[in-house]
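Objective 1b of the project was to move from sequence-level analysis to a structural picture of ligand recognition. The entry below was assembled by the postdoctoral researcher (A.K.) and checked by the PI before modelling. It contains the amino acid sequence of the target and the SMILES of the bound compound, NAP.
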Amino acid sequence: MRVFVLGGTGSIGTPVLRELIERGHDVVALARSEASAIILERRGATVLRGDLAAPEGWVPTLPAVDGVIHLACDFASDMAAIERGLLDTLLPHLARQGTEARFLYTGGCWLYGATGDRIASEDSPFAPLAAFAWMVPHLLRVLDSEEVAGIVVHPAMVYGGEGGVFRRFARDAASGSVRVVGAESVRWPLVHCDDLADLYALAIEAAPRGSSYIGTAVDSMPVGQLARAFEAPELQVLPPDVIAEELGEWARGYACDQQLSGVRARRELGWRPAHLNPIADIHQWLRQ
Ligand SMILES: NC(=O)c1ccc[n+]([C@@H]2O[C@H](COP(=O)([O-])OP(=O)(O)OC[C@H]3O[C@@H](n4cnc5c(N)ncnc54)[C@H](OP(=O)(O)O)[C@@H]3O)[C@@H](O)[C@H]2O)c1
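Corresponding predicted holo structure:
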């Protein structure tokens, strides 16, 4: 397949791009800067220069593609307006290309809100964290679209690779005190970025039109247990307001107590995540 990837330098996009290329797909990737273009080219993609915020400048130059994987997000800008503009330009362009394109939109675990002791699935109602509520109408638009065959993947908390949610713990641990948000008992659903990349590849290759998948390998794990695995001398519990002030409103999600099920992706797509023990992964990482 020829697959167009938006966000191919990101913490999820990097392993997704690698997985697609390893599986023999022809990848075209969007780059908003020269630095990103160099990285993407080095990794084997054909670069299309452009910014999410100005799709009219680059969408007309996009070659015909079989699939699109949208993983680009700028957590500081008005993503509701930027992404609306992107979909308004990109979806009609794809509809005009002759063959139907598959379009994989990235949602996220925080769209399901705090689930507490309930384990949410793709059939559960959305209860999005305020900072990500703009995603819901966009993902519904993609799923219902007649312009493309829409698919949604909702990644759990992603770890491993260059980025990921454990980076902050590792940085904190190096300074002697690991910080968790809300409470040690807050539970996170988790997925290793390599397993998630495998799910993205399976979904763009074979998921039926209109389908959604939660990408979680581990339904939930208490964040205190994860933080303590970094073996820092001290553990601090921060109120959500403090982390929101430091990183932005989106970071309130770190206090979201969730349990999610990844059964559908396993059953329907044959997804077999290899990383089922995040604590063992942390220990291995610390030994490197
Ligand atoms: N990471 C997680 O744990 C997680 C969990 C659930 C859902 N998600 C969702 O997954 C998506 C990707 O997350 P991520 O963690 O991979 O993000 P990330 O590491 O911050 O990567 C963002 C990507 O978007 C690109 N980008 C940002 N603004 C752009 C613009 N204006 N024009 C073109 N490209 C732009 C960046 O490109 P350059 O920086 O190279 O320019 C980068 O490749 C987000 O929607 C996020 O909400 C993430």
